[in-house]
Amino acid sequence: MKKIRIRLENEQGNVALFVLGLISIMILLFLLILNLAGALIVKEQAVSTSQQAALAATATLYEELPGFILSYEKDLKKFIEEEEAAKEKEEAAKEEESPEEPAEPEVPEAPVEEKKEKSIDELIDEEAEKLSGEMADYTLNEIRNEAIDRILAKELDKGLGNGMLKEKMSLELEFDWIKSMKESARNAILANGGELDGAVMTVFEDGQIVVESSREVGAIGYNGFFAGIKESLFKSSKGPEVKFVQKLPGWEGRTYSLE
Description:
Helices cover about 65% and strands about 15% of the residues. A hairpin with a 2-residue loop joins β1 (about 195-205) and β2. The protein is α+β, with helices and mostly antiparallel strands. The chain is elongated. The chain has four helices and four strands, in the order ααααββββ. α1 (about 1-95) packs antiparallel against α4 (about 160-190) and α2 crosses α3.
């Protein structure tokens, strides 16, 4: 009887150890599944954070354009007036140098109605009205941004004022707009729970602003397993395509730190 009791106690002890081991394995498996699920959630959050930052930077670029367009048109008008004045002065100088010829009787010419050039804002308004039909599912802001994009792309191709638009736009990007776009991207990352360490903004990749940022993922630990594990999960995302920036030389693929 004593031997049987000892044997039973040993078997009960083995069963208890087996059950404890099985429970530990199940807990570890459960924690592993939880950590994988958590990592997937953080991955989606990291993508969303980068996307919001890219959208914010793109929106800031469009917000800078109305004031810039007014300033550009004033400078272009002044440039054209100066060019015309210089041409008239040159022609007057030539007339003074040439010998006088008998004046011919002047024949009155029919009045010619001058065709007034439309401003960029007027062209944008017209384009937005045209787009409102084919972009019926888009917001008014998205429609106007598309109109701005198309009209500016055409104006850049014209090269008026010896390429004044390209020159002024590149200078604004270099010394003003990029700063504002970076600030908007940073604020969007922080507002969405992301981290600025290692975050970067690239302009312009195929005409798009690309932001790469991270979110911290921490493992759920048990009895020393997984405890204290933390990683920064980096993901990148692109904003909408901006066609007119593709007309600007030297701006493809520039990368800026957002730290």
